[in-house]
Structures are given as structure tokens and as C-alpha cells.
Design goal:
2 copies of one chain form a homodimer. With 338 residues, chain A is α/β, with parallel strands linked by helices. Chain A has helices at 49-53, 128-141, 157-168, 180-189, 202-209, 223-229, 266-270, 280-283, 288-300, 317-325, and strands at residues 3-9, 22-28, 36-45, 74-81, 91-94, 101-105, 110-112, 148-151, 172-177, 194-197, 214-219, 233-241, 274-277, 308-312, 332-336. Chain A folds into 2 domains: 3-123 and 307-336, Medium-chain alcohol dehydrogenases, catalytic domain (Quinone Oxidoreductase, Chain A, domain 1, Alpha-Beta Complex); 128-283, Rossmann fold. Chain A contains 10 helices and 15 strands. The longest helix of chain A is centred in the middle third of the chain and has 14 residues, at 128-141. Strand 13 of chain A pairs antiparallel with strand 13 of chain B, so a sheet runs across the interface.
Chain lengths: 338, 338
């Protein structure tokens, strides 16, 4: 009998996830029912939000059950179809989970055209991370020509798109990343105006990179980076709160006991700052068509590039996820399945 | 020779202002030139923002010079006019300072009609504090029917208007004030749904007053009140940052050394919060006509009341100002001049 490999949440992590929090199991291949499609997964998307799903805490989405398959978006190819909308070999996108196969209702799948863009981009630059970048800039960041935009986790899935979109809007863009290779990528490949290595002296580098202060800060990380950028806001600055991955491993990623204090908010009044959080699922998907059309135009014009970090094989997923939370990925983290 | 009493900034305060930071002097009565008007001040407005003007720190407005007259808005009556637009006895509004008289260009004065509303309201419910409340709710707070709005410094000049406007919009309004008399005023006179005494157990009272959490928090104070309200935000909550009077006496009211830490911002992402500061002078005055028309309607309909705390005589101004920063005023703080 054909089998399906799955990675389950073995237990809820205490702080940073470790290998023992996951379990690889073999289960029978699912059988598609009428109107369903069996999908062979080709790329799994690993994203920081999945850390939140591992905790049993009140949040904007239900947690993964202990013993349940870890959640993720994935792209794959139809292996067997019981719906006329799909045939074997078609590329599809959906919420397929950390596993090799899944059987899903055809109407829950989004068809992908591999001639338009590589299918893996549906998980990155043309997918949720790209849409996240676009929505956050459209709705909150709103960078203007000549403004200074600082992007944390600049070489990551969201950060690369944020910075390139801000450049397209005419802003000066400074990317914060960890280490020389990522910083070189940020300036040389992504075309940002400057890079700041958060492993070095943040204040000195930010002084040099942002001599007139910061108009927009794209917050992916929290912690020391946030503390260094916050005092540099100019009047009417905007802080786009996309995530604070530096504290996702603290209790529920929240202001619970143990979470570090934040900045004193006095400057929010004096400088008329706007600090706003958002979740792409709230308002993003109804605007996906507009986003995609713009992005395909940028890609065709050579204004938008991307980098993927591809782990090989399902069994590599836990270590890749753990590494991503520690900043060891270099680009959008994917897992490639054979 | 007729003389003018003035209160000067004698020196920059270190922390909370003390009486010695001010100096009362007698100077010759100013002489209006052509096109100017001599105004006899009747009411001076004392407002928390004036504390910021006493520091020599970068802010949205220039500081008062040491030896200069303390700034404030005031209403008064024309004592002598060298401009055809005004005649003796006319009521006017302007930025007249902590003094008994001033000579100003006629075009810098705003005429008041005492039959429409008591002139002192031009410094409160119909003036800058009222406009502040209106702008902050229009642009940031945007309370909806059935939402819970928490207002700090609820019996103060801005807070009273915020809560009443939020009630008019159909929100449930909880006012935070200091002591039983102010709390009774908040519920019995202003008509808020509940009052919380910040001198008591904040958490227990907020639990009781906001069982479903907070949708809009109007921030006038900072400190312990902010820390108690912040964790209670519901998803999509808005924090209208109007002021943080609890720390105006720390170095430049800023996140400078010594300012207390703020809340960890993790919940801003998870709950999609918006924290935004504003200054009424940025965008408020071009909309003054709309604000005033609405407010006169509310007043005529009995939906808008106000309370003033009136100190008697210019020499009482420093103590009244010091007391206001400590929360000892009860209502909009004015100084009445004979």
C-alpha cells in the first residue's frame, strides 16, 4: 500500500522548538472522494507564524492539535483527480500541511500556471509573504518619495519584497539582516540603499545609514533591533508591525510574563507616530488580483527579484523551521519534496 | 502709568515645576499700534502641553524662552482698538499668554459671540481641548456602536468631551479619574457608563467595567493606567495617543533616560492594534467649522455638558498649573482675571 509521510506536532514546545517537538510518521495514502483531488506536495512553505500555531494560546487562529499534522501552505501537483476541474499533473496551491500528499476538495485548490512563474513563487514573492509586504505598505507604511524605510529581516521572505516595493515607490531603503552575506545580498542583489548587520553595532550603523531618521520601520523581529530603530523615528513615522520573531519562542509570543518591555510611548504623541499591526488574512486576499498583476509587472520589468532557501525532503522540515526562527535561513524558507 | 502683570518662565523646571520656576512682574501696559487691538484678558487656559514648552527640547513647538511670558490661549475683551474690525468690549480669542493685557494685530484675533456660548468655552468644550477630542475620535479612535471606549483623565478638559462624543456615537464609555468625586461626576453628570478610580485597584475595576475588553483607549496619562489598560485591548483596538501627562515632568517627556519602559508590542501584531499619536494643530483647525457646528448642536440638545475649574487671579496661575499636572484640577483648568 502506498504510504504518506507526515510530520506531526508531538508536543507543545517550551520556548524554542526542538526536534523532539515533531514526529515523522507514515500513514496510508489518503483516498480522494468524489469532487476531491489527491495532491503530491512539491514545496512546503515554512513561515514564522507557524510557531504561533504550536502554542495553545488565544490568538487569531486555532492552534495545531498535539498529534495533528503541522500546518503550512504548499504547492503540489495533482496525482489523481475525482473532479473535472483538475487533471493529473496540474500545479495547485493550498493549505496542505507538512506531509507528502493530501486529498482535498477541488474547490479548496488554487490552480497555478507554471509558465507564468515558477510554482514555488506562489509561496513567496507571489504568495502570502509577498501579499503581506504589499498590504502592509499599502495600508500602513505608505512610503513616499525620498522617505527612509528601514526593513528588518530584510533578506527574508517578506522583507525582500517590502524593500523592493518601497524602492519602486521612490523611498530610500535600509535593510537589517544578520551577517555579511545577507547584508551584501540586500544591497547588491535586492538593490537596497544600505544594509545594517544586526550582529554588529546597531546604533553606529543606523546613525550612518539613516542620518535623517526613519519614516517607516517594517517590524519583523522585535527585541534589540526594535529598541535601536524606535528612537530614530521622524515626525509622522509609521511602524508596520508584521511580526516580532525574536520573541515568538517566549510564552505565546505575547506580553505575557517574561516578554521584554517595549519602548516608552511618549514619542508617539510628540512625533505623531503610528504603530499598527496587521495580519494578511484579514484584508489581503480580496486584493490578491491587484497585488499579483502589479508584481508580475515588476518581475517582467526586472524590478523584483527573490531568493529561496530550499531544504530537501520532508524529514528536513523540523530543522529548517527551527533554523528559520533563529535567523539561519537565507531567503524564503521552503522544503522541497521529491 | 497703567501696568500689565505678567508671569514669566524664570528658569527651566527640573522635573515637576515649582513656584520658583515662575516670576510675576509688572511691566508697562502695551500700546496698540495701527491695526492692533489692546485686549484685557478675562480667562487664561492652562493645558498640559504647556509643560512641554518649558523644556528646551526638540518638540513640535518652540520652547518658551527663559525670561519670556508663559504661553497660553486666552479670551478677553477689547480694551482699545486701532482697527475697524473690533470695538471696545468685544470678546476675542487668541494666544495671549499668562498676563493681564496684550496688544495684538486685529487679524490674529478670533471674534467670539457671548450670546452663542459663554466666552470661556472657547478655551474648553468649544476650543482646543474640544477640537482635540473630536479630531482624535474622527481620525483614530473611530468608535462604533456597542464598542467599549476607555478614557483616561476623564473629568479633564479633553476627556469629558471624548467620552460624551463617544456616547453620542453609541459606544459604551468607561472613564478613569482620580477619586470618588471625579468618578461620580463622570457617571452622574457626564453620563459615562462606568468610572474607574485610578487611586484604587485598577485591574479589578477594569475587569468589572470592561468585561469584554477595550476597543478604544484614549490615552491622556501614561504610566500605571496605560499599563493596566493595554493588555485589555480586543482585536483591532485603537489607542489614541493624546498625551502622557504622568511623564511630562520627566526629561522632555520623552523616551529619554529615566522614562519608564512601555508595553511589549507583541499584542500589536496578534490583535492588529493601532497606536497613534496626534497633535490637534496638525490637522484640526481647518475643520474647526464642522466641529463647532456639531458641538453647538450637541449643546443645544443637552447632549454635551462641561465643567471648568477656575483659579482666581493671575498670581494663582502657577499653583493651578502645578496642580493640574498632578491631577488636582477638576474639569477644564482656567484662570479668571478681573
Amino acid at each position: 500500500m502506498a504510504m504518506n509521510s507526515q510530520i506531526l506536532l508531538a508536543r507543545r514546545p517550551q520556548g524554542a522548538p526542538v526536534a523532539e517537538d515533531f514526529r515523522l510518521v507514515e500513514t496510508p495514502l489518503p483516498e480522494p472522494g468524489p469532487g476531491e483531488v489527491l495532491v503530491r506536495h512539491r514545496f512546503l512553505s515554512l513561515d514564522p507564524y507557524q510557531r504561533g500555531r504550536m502554542d495553545d494560546a488565544k490568538s487569531y487562529a486555532k492552534p495545531v492539535a498535539v498529534g495533528g499534522v503541522m500546518e503550512c501552505q504548499a504547492v503540489g501537483q495533482v496525482a489523481a483527480s475525482r473532479d473535472p476541474a483538475f487533471k493529473e499533473g496540474d500545479w495547485v496551491l493550498g493549505g496542505f500541511g507538512w506531509q507528502g500528499f493530501s486529498a482535498r476538495p477541488a474547490k479548496a485548490l488554487i490552480a497555478l500556471d507554471p509558465k507564468e512563474a515558477p510554482p514555488s513563487t506562489a509561496l513567496g514573492v507571489l504568495g502570502m509573504p509577498g501579499l503581506t509586504a504589499w498590504v502592509g505598505l499599502e495600508d500602513i507604511g505608505q512610503p513616499k518619495v525620498g522617505e527612509t524605510v528601514v526593513v528588518s529581516a530584510a533578506s527574508g521572505a517578506v522583507g525582500q519584497v517590502v524593500g523592493q516595493l518601497a524602492k519602486i515607490r521612490g523611498a530610500r531603503v535600509v535593510g537589517i539582516a544578520g551577517g555579511g552575506a545577507k547584508c551584501a545580498f540586500v544591497t547588491d542583489t535586492l538593490g537596497f540603499d544600505a544594509a545594517v548587520d544586526h550582529r554588529g553595532d546597531l546604533d553606529a550603523q543606523l546613525d550612518a545609514a539613516c542620518p535623517e531618521g526613519v519614516d517607516v520601520y517594517w517590524e519583523n523581529v522585535g527585541g534589540a533591533v526594535q529598541a535601536a530603530v524606535f528612537p530614530r523615528f521622524r515626525d509622522f513615522g509609521r511602524m508596520v508591525m508584521c511580526g516580532m520573531v525574536a520573541q515568538y519562542n517566549t510564552a505565546s509570543g505575547a506580553a505575557a510574563a517574561g516578554a521584554p518591555a517595549g519602548p516608552n510611548l511618549g514619542p508617539v504623541v510628540r512625533k505623531r507616530l503610528r504603530i499598527q499591526g496587521f495580519i494578511v488574512n484579514d484584508t489581503g486576499w480580496p486584493r490578491y488580483g491587484q497585488f499579483r498583476a502589479e508584481m508580475l509587472g515588476h518581475i517582467a520589468a526586472g524590478r523584483m527579484v527573490w531568493r529561496e532557501d530550499v531544504a530537501q525532503g520532508l524529514e528536513a522540515a523540523p530543522a529548517a523551521f527551527i533554523g528559520m526562527l533563529a535567523g539561519r535561513n537565507f531567503g524564503k524558507q521552503l522544503v522541497s519534496l521529491p
